[in-house]
Amino acid sequence: MTALEAAVLCLVAVIGHLMALFWLCVEEYEVDLSRDQIYDLQIKDPQVRRELKNSLHTPMHAILLLAALMIGLFEERSMGAFLYTFVFTALWAEVWHYASHRAFHLQSLHWIHAEHHKSRLSSPFTALSFSFTEKLVFDIGMIGGMAIVGLFLPLNWFGVAAWFAAYLIVNSFGHANYEIRGETFMKLKGTVLTSTVYHALHHSRYTGNYGLGTRVLDRILGTEWPDVEAVYDRVVSDKQPLAALRDRVEPTGDS
């Protein structure tokens, strides 16, 4: 193992916790990024303690990346391979996350995912709060899926690791109770990409909006909440957070 590979492993192991602490500080000190609150509700201390406890096994992905390195997976080291590996990992993540997430909401498998959904009002540490089984299934599916791709295409280990780092960064504020994107986001990028509001509705309503970084599969398979854009406009444009987890917003003609 090279010094660079060791450094990347250490970074990937801790970056989720570092980002959660960062976004909690943003909220605590009312930095401008946290101005658009989604739910006008407070996260209770027991939830934070539970999420912190669950986050202890979050670095599991770093252990699996180490194992991949040790057995010789993803050996290509060119810059081109890094770029296409990152892209392929991101594309596989959309498919694997949606498929596994949707499956975890089946009655027979929901025990795997139930721990994550104890947080109906999500926080940055909710992004790290999963059962051991769910984290293991997701990470093995991600790395195992890319290992299969690697049978046909030379992949770069750093490209896979970089996706995990980016995922942990984005997923951290993706579980916050405030939206950091601006009013223009929903007009163009937001028609394809998810937002914090998007995933907050999944937690508060328990179903729907299963997508990770994009809305594509939710739209194709009919699992998107119809008032996503109306809620976003209310929170970001009108500066009116929702008062209760059960609240709905009537979609307008423009939403």
Word description of this protein:
There is one protein chain. By secondary structure, the chain is an all-alpha fold. It has a domain at 3-180. Helices cover 55% and strands 2% of the residues. The chain has ten helices and two strands; from the N terminus they run αβααααααβααα. The chain has helices spanning 3-28, 45-54, 60-70, 79-104, 110-113, 132-149, 157-174, 196-205, 216-221, 228-237, and strands spanning 36-37, 178-179. The protein has a two-stranded antiparallel ribbon with strand order 1-2. The longest helix has 26 residues, at 3-28. The chain is globular and about 50 Å long. The mean pLDDT is 93.
Key descriptive features of the protein:
2% strand; single chain; 2 strands; 255 residues; two-stranded antiparallel ribbon; mainly alpha; globular
**What ranges have pLDDT less than 50 throughout 5 or more consecutive residues?**
none
- Individual helix count: 10
- Cross-sheet strand order for the largest sheet: 1-2
Radius of gyration: 18 Å
Distance between the termini: 51 Å
- How do the helices and strands follow one another from N- to C-terminus? HEHHHHHHEHHH
**Biggest sheet features:** 2 strands, antiparallel
What is the arithmetic mean of pLDDT?
Answer: 93
The assigned structural class equals mainly alpha
The rough form would be described as globular
Percent helix, as a range, is 40-55%
Strand proportion, as a percent range, falls in under 5%
How many strands in all? 2
